[in-house]
Write the structure tokens for this entry.
Amino acid sequence: MILLDGKGLSDKIQRDISRECETLGLKPGLAVILVGDDAPSRAYVNMKERACQRVGFASRKYELAQSCTQGELLDLIAELNADFEIHGILVQLPLPKHIDTSVVLESIVPHKDVDGFHPYNVGRLNTNLDGFVPATPLGVMSLLEAYEISVRGRDVVIVGASNIVGRPLATLMLNAGASVSVCHILTKDVGEYTRRADIVCVGVGKANLITESMIKPGAIVVDIGINRLDSGALVGDVDFENVSKKALAITPVPGGVGPMTIASLLQNTLKAAKQIQGVAQ
């Protein structure tokens, strides 16, 4: 069984990014907006801030009250759109219910949309054109590539159909030549799909959703989920202990896809800075 070490690969990518910024004399700027005081969201924002510091990016964190209006948030984004020192803008999700997430995401100019959620970038991904790709799916593909796991001609099942992970990951897999099935909350029998798959990717936020009986011997399992048990332990969506005995390769949680998400966000921010500054890719 091969353990797909996202932590080690993420550390290497971050070192490479730091060296490239020094060589090019670039200081990419990332602005992260946090609305409200959701504890997991704050933890993610702080993690991104620390990652920026490690690679030498300029990081700005904007914290708005839970009660802030949609107009106040849009005004802030408009200022950042026009700020020459900011190359990437990230609005931490989820937003409070009184704010229209779609309107907010569409207000970010596409060339600073390092989360890859703007319809312009979604469209470019779906037509297999260059643009910004959501960080978690991009991290999954980078991790597989690093371990020389080709998806071309493989049967891939993705469990979870969110706009942040499942849908863009399915598109990346299709673009790379895989045959893709997407399972979601209305799928009658998820196991019917996963048992036939060469590669299973799951990200729904339900501990132990994927069990040993649901995968075939030699499958590659990518666990994108993260759940905190009552004991305080962090686990994914896969029964790691038992599935790992049957899989050819599997990602751990933590230490698998999570660190790759951070690395991919930094890669997108560097890419945005190079495009805005006119540096050859």
The two ends are 36 Å apart (CA to CA). The longest strand covers residues 29-35. The domain at 135-258 is CATH 3.40.50.720 (Rossmann fold).
